[in-house]
Write a structure and sequence with these properties.
Layout lengths: L1 H20 L15 H6 L1 H4 L3 E12 L4 E8 L2 E8 H4 L1 H8 L6 E10 L5 E12 L15 H6 L1 H7 L1 H23 L3 E2 L5 E2 L11 E4 L4 E5 L4 H9 L4 E9 L11 E10 L3 H19 L4 E4 L2 E4 L5 E4 H9 L7 H10 L10 H13 L7 E7 L8 E2 L2 E12 L2 E8 L4 H16 L10 H7 L6 E7 H9 L18
Helix pairs in contact: 7-8, 8-10, 11-13, 14-15
């Protein structure tokens, strides 16, 4: 295969040299086209016999003698071109002989249909726009090697129509999310990516050094604390769509660099966020599929609200088959018997987190809100009215994917300080993911933050769900990869 590619590449370079000898620039500066492939095909009734100008990559070439056919691919799809020597002239037809599959071409000609009924363009003028030096992967049958697809995304996009479609749908999903929030009065903002104190989540950060300031800075793990500063400042509905970074493992649902939506709404709580989440996800689904029933890994999922609500304590007790009144030791024994690995020292929050991750969340195929989490693992949320050890927090799951996290936000500065101090103790005890102290954020709270609901959604995972992709790297154009061997 490598020898075949090398031979083809040599021939392509020889064609370029011949073109230059004939005074033809293989890389002209610009080209003005009038129509895309879809516009020609879709508008055939009004365009038949009309001259158009199209451009795209030559995906296939057929024919011998004095006539030939070619397939041009552009962003909208494919259009067939028909090249005849007696119509384009000797010089242009000689150019066609020096064109290779993979080259970028422009074609001017009349819209027609072939005898088989295919909409085509009868070429009057052919223009080489960019000469390729390498043959297309696997003779255009598709780039199937996963590693190559991720490392050389440009080849994946050339060869795999499905990949192009996924990323075009990703764009529509993000556009729908923005439009949905703007309709509801949310203002899009930007907050620092480089932060002196990272916070808003439990995660190991990436650290870098700023030489002019002579200080370490962190790539943000979340946008939360800066967005809530804006709520304090009087921007009552704010959102940000941006990159966050977590220095953690890589698997099919985790990437060290990922895109997240975070939003905050004054005078709201986590119940309001649940209603907003249902509407937002449905809007995004409609933007790419037209309905609330979506395919997911061979099944169909109905996104129609209202979604199921399940308390964390009830989910853990049910999965471990525990009686209503049970202690931590009894729950731990039941978890270990079911293969759950528990940390030391053990706590109610740590146990719940491990059981949810191992036994509950993967089974949540239908849209489900897990609500009311242990305070210990939720340092930024307000406690529930009837249980000071539980907070008003939810995470939501669809298709076994954790897609988002929400709080009724804590706005008591004294309580927030106490919770940060507890997290600092955990960090000093060796927990690298524990939250740090953020004095400036506490200072902001001391000026008063109204009751607020907050929501974060992993947009890469939402795109996975709505495009039926099992691996997060299939929805990130340039995912972080291990070094090539």
């Amino acid at each position: 295969m490598e020898r075949e590619e090398s031979t083809a590449a040599e021939a392509m370079r020889e064609h370029e040299a011949e073109l230059r000898r004939r005074g033809i620039d293989p890389y002209p500066r610009t080209f003005e086209r009038t129509h895309t492939s879809a516009e020609v095909a879709g508008g055939f009734d009004s365009l038949e016999g009309t001259e158009v100008v199209v451009a795209g990559r030559l995906a296939a070439a057929r024919g011998h003698g004095k006539a030939a056919f070619g397939d041009l691919h552009d962003v909208d799809g494919r259009i067939q071109i028909y090249v005849r020597k007696d119509e384009v002239g000797d010089e242009a037809f000689e150019l066609w002989k020096l064109v290779d599959v993979g080259d970028i071409l422009g074609a001017r000609g009349e819209v027609m249909k072939t005898r088989t009924g295919e909409v085509s363009i009868r070429v009057a003028e052919l223009t080489l726009l960019a000469k390729a030096h390498m043959p297309l992967p696997e003779k255009w049958h598709g780039l199937r090697d996963k590693e190559a697809r991720y490392r050389q995304r440009y080849l994946d996009l050339i060869a795999n129509e499905q990949s192009r479609d996924v990323f075009l749908r990703r764009s529509r999903i993000l556009s729908a999310v923005r439009g949905f929030l703007e309709e509801r009065g949310f203002v899009e903002v930007e907050t620092p990516v480089l932060q002196p104190v990272y916070g808003g989540a439990f995660a190991r950060p990436f650290v870098t050094h700023h030489h002019a300031l002579d200080r370490d800075l962190y790539l943000r793990i979340a946008d939360e604390l800066y967005l809530k500063r804006l709520i304090v400042g009087g921007l009552e509905r704010v959102f940000e769509i941006g990159k966050d970074f977590r220095n953690e493992g890589v698997d099919r649902t985790h990437s060290p660099e990922f895109t997240q939506l975070e939003l905050y709404q004054a005078y709201a709580d986590y119940n309001d966020m649940m209603a907003l989440t249902e509407e937002l996800v449905v809007r995004a689904a409609e933007a790419v599929g037209g309905g609330t029933a979506i395919p997911w890994q061979g099944d169909e999922i109905d996104l129609s609200p209202p979604w199921k609500r399940l308390r964390v304590a009830d989910a853990v007790a049910e999965r471990l088959d525990l009686p209503p009144e049970h202690g931590l030791e009894e729950a731990a024994r039941a978890a270990v018997e079911r293969g759950v690995e528990l940390p030391e020292p053990l706590s109610e929050g740590a146990l719940a987190e491990k059981v949810l991750d191992a036994l509950v969340e993967p089974e949540l195929l239908e849209p489900t809100f897990l609500v009311d989490y242990p305070l210990e693992i939720s340092p930024l949320a307000k406690t529930t009215p009837d249980d000071p050890a539980t907070v008003e927090r939810f995470e939501f799951f669809i298709g076994g994917l954790e897609l988002g996290n929400s709080f009724t936000e804590l706005n008591d500065p004294r309580e927030q300080r106490a919770r940060f101090e507890y997290q600092v103790e955990k960090r000093e005890g060796g927990d690298v993911e524990a939250h740090g102290m953020d004095e400036d954020f506490i200072a902001a709270l001391e000026y008063g933050m109204p009751p607020t609901g907050g929501l974060g959604i992993g947009l890469d995972r939402l795109v996975m769900l709505l495009t039926d992709q099992r691996n997060i790297r299939d929805v990130i154009l340039f995912p972080t990869m291990r070094p090539e061997e």
